[in-house]
Structure formats: C-alpha cells, structure tokens
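Why does residue order matter? Because the sequence determines the fold. Keep that principle in mind as you read this record.
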Amino acid sequence: MFIKDDVIYVGVNDHEIDLFEGQYDVPEGMAYNSYVIMDEKIAVMDSVDQNFGEKWIANIKEALGDRTPDYLVVQHMEPDHSANIDRFVSEFPDAKIVGNAMTFTMMKKYFGTNYPEKQVMVKEGDTLELGKHTLQFVFAPMVHWPEVMMTYDRTSKVFFSADAFGKFGALDIEADWACEARRYYFGIVGKFGMQVQALLKKAAGLDIEVICPLHGPVLTENLGYYLDLYNTWSSYGVESEGVFIAYTSVYGNTKKAAELLKEKLEEKGCPKVAIADLAREDMAESVEDAFRYGKLVLATTTYNADIFPFMREFIADLLERGYQNRTIGIIENGTWAPMAAKVIKAKFEGSKNISFTDTVVTVHAALNEASEAQIAALADELA
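Structure:
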C-alpha cells in the first residue's frame, strides 16, 4: 500500500492478541505498523511484534522486489516494534541500523548485542540522506519511553510518529479513530502530558501532510483535528462538557444512588451523562471517560475503613496519569460509619486544580428522603 511519494506500508494486523501490553482489552485486534521509503537508498521504519516476523519480512521483500534495504530506522524499542530486529539483520546482512544512544543501550539488553558494526548513531535534528528523501530525526523522550525518536521526511512531508497518534484496533476493521485513540492515549501515554506538549511544539515547526504512527491508521486528512485532540489530552483539558459517574456497589444501593443522580442531571439538561460500574466495565474505558469530561462523580461504599477495591484501583489509575483540572462530586455509602468521602479527598490532596462540590451525598445503607435531597442538590451543583 503506497502512502505518499514512495512511502509504502509493510505492517501487519494482529487478530490473535487478547490483551495489549498484558492489560488492555483489544477485541478488534492491533496493527503493528512498519513503512518502507523507496529511494536511491531504502529505509525501513521500525519492526513488528515477534509473532509476525515472517509476514513482515515477506511484506518488505514484496515491496522491494529485487532490491534490499540499506537502513532499519528504530524509533522505539518496545518489543511490539523491535522484536524482529535480529531477524531483519539475518535477512539483510548489509543493512545498517539507525538509532540513538539509548536505542542501542536498550537493544543490547534485548538481544545481547547492539550490532556495533551496523550502527548509525543519530542525535536530535540530525538528518539522513536517502537520495531525494531527507530524513530529519525528532527526539520525543517519554512519549512514552525514554529512547523514543520520531522521523520527519522533508521531501514527502510525512511524519513517522512512533507510538504517538496511535490507537487500538487492526487496520482491516472500520472503527472511529477518537474512541480507541483516546483509550490508547490515556492508558499508555497519559502520564506524560508535559512531554507530549513538548513534542507538539516541535511538530508545529514542521510542514506535516501525513502522520504515520506505529499503531492505527495513517492520518492523511484534517490533521488539525488529531493535533487539537492531542493538545487537549496532553494539557489535561476538557474534551467534552458533561459528567462521568463512576460507581461501585455491593448490594445495589450505591448503584441506585448513582442512577438517580444520572436521572436528575439529565432532567436538568446536562449535555452528556456517562455512567460506569467499575466492577463490571473495562477499567481503561472508565479512565478514558474520566479524562474526557470536565466533571466526575465517585460513588462508592466504605469498605474495611477504606473504599471499595475497584474504586481504589480506579482512583490510583487516575492519579498515576496526572488527573487534574476537574470538579469531583462524591456519593458515599456506609451502614454504620461512612468514610469514603474522607478517604477520596485525601487521595487527591496532591493533585493539581481539583475542586470538590460543596455537596457530599451520604447514604446510610439505602436511599431515604435525606440522601435523595442531597442527590438533588449535587445535581444542581454539577448542572
């Protein structure tokens, strides 16, 4: 598949995977993207997952015909993009490997060698001439590993963006980009908003017409849409006005309180109210929604003088990713000593720009007139 000006796709689709990175549910599979730039000298951009080495090499040979590659550019050493480096070296022994100092340090840890006789070491801003194509290397440490670099083809104006702008899902399935790109971003990259902001500033100085990520589709139109979303996500801004209600419930009473709040908010015309049972719905989806909306409600039971385990895990996931710039409401439940609100507020003490609603709903075992009135007051505040 030609991308633009002798840039050819040679990646693979993975429908065998169940959990990406051992934790993210990927019912629509994954794509491991790799690209070839055809010129006087030929560059292959990144490898693929270990299970698809044979297919990847076959794709390269089909694209090249009777030619062989001169370079393998290694932008990211995570194994889903680097596992077949050794196989590449065996197939194309005359090719050089392009990377930075940290790339080659990691490479030796994975393979026992970093192929010193094949190394082309590059630094920020260095270029590699292929003929009519000039590759410029753009370093992006911690987006989302420390060795990550990206590559701008000055000739074709293609930006090879490593894991940035990627998404869950194989390329042979039609799917909305934003939904799975958002879950991917906040699950995997979300902690590193400051580093993504630094990358976006570098990208703003480049005349980019096509973005080629290592996961997900090649982005060729309306690039401002993708860049704007990445700017919102990485600056911890609000993407959609609305409220996300995340709850845990043992016997259904906290669930009833959460659902009543949703009903009250919708009655008041709240533009969007999303709700999730943290024990039963995908945790990464819930993390995504917490970052998507400007207001969050946490509804949970007191449990062992703490909060229910799924709520504790959810909050830990938010804090790990730098959750900030949000308003939080709380619904706590406890039959004899409700203390979830106190525990939750303490967990967010070190967070930036987190405000809590004045109203805290306290349910003593089951809803009654008093707690229902508090829910109505909380809906007034949030709406």
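The chain has twelve helices and 22 strands.
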